[in-house]
Amino acid sequence: MKTSELFDLLEKNNTKTLQFEYSPGRLVRSNFHITEVKHVSIDSVDCGSGTDQWHETIIQLWESPVDIDKEGTMSAFKALGILKKVGNLKSYDPDAQVKFEYGNSSFHTAQLVVHNAEVVGHELIVRLHSDVTDCKAKEACGIEEVQQKVMAETDCCGPGSSCC
Domain map of the chain by residue range? Predict the structure, then answer.
């Protein structure tokens, strides 16, 4: 998700409470704070000597141990206000990929990308997941691209069969 898409999502759902799912069925506690926003510039060289540059927006989420019994959840409106305040101090690259940095005592700190977002009742649930590492120079390194296997037709599911 691009930074501009996150802003649009929060704006469209500004009356909703904001929840983050960091692992299937596991939500960041409702007492979370947005503790830091990083505007990161990446200037990289891959294993095939290819160069690349891009920007990322990294939003750090933190669960306060002091507020563990706090009722209520941050609204999308409040989160958007915090992010806009940051933008007044340091401008965003609207095309930068947004990541959320999060960890707790049972989940290692990681930078998570947005898998999807869904409105459920009065909540906007942003589902996060880990990104995978990859070789960006497969051809130069002699690594073949993995082709998706096409399932062969069988008598059971072939044309004219009664199972499909």
Answer: 3-134
For the chain, state the CA radius of gyration.
Answer: 21
Phi and psi at residue 147, to the nearest 5°: -90, 140
Contact 4, 95 (CB under 8 A): yes
Q: Quick check: 47 and 11 in contact, CB under 8 A?
A: no
Q: What is the DSSP string of 30-79?
A: TTEEEEEEEEEEEEEE-TTS-EEEEEEEEEEEEE-STTTT-----BHHHH
pLDDT in tens, 12-64: 999 999 999 999 999 999 889 999 999 999 999 999 999 999 999 999 999 98
Give φ, ψ of 111 to 5 degrees.
Answer: -95, 120
Q: How far does Cα 148 stand from its chain's mean position?
A: 25
From 86, 93, 113, 84, select the one nearest 20 (Cα to Cα).
113
* Per-residue pLDDT at 82 exceeds 90: yes
Cα separation, 98 vs 113, whole angstroms: 7
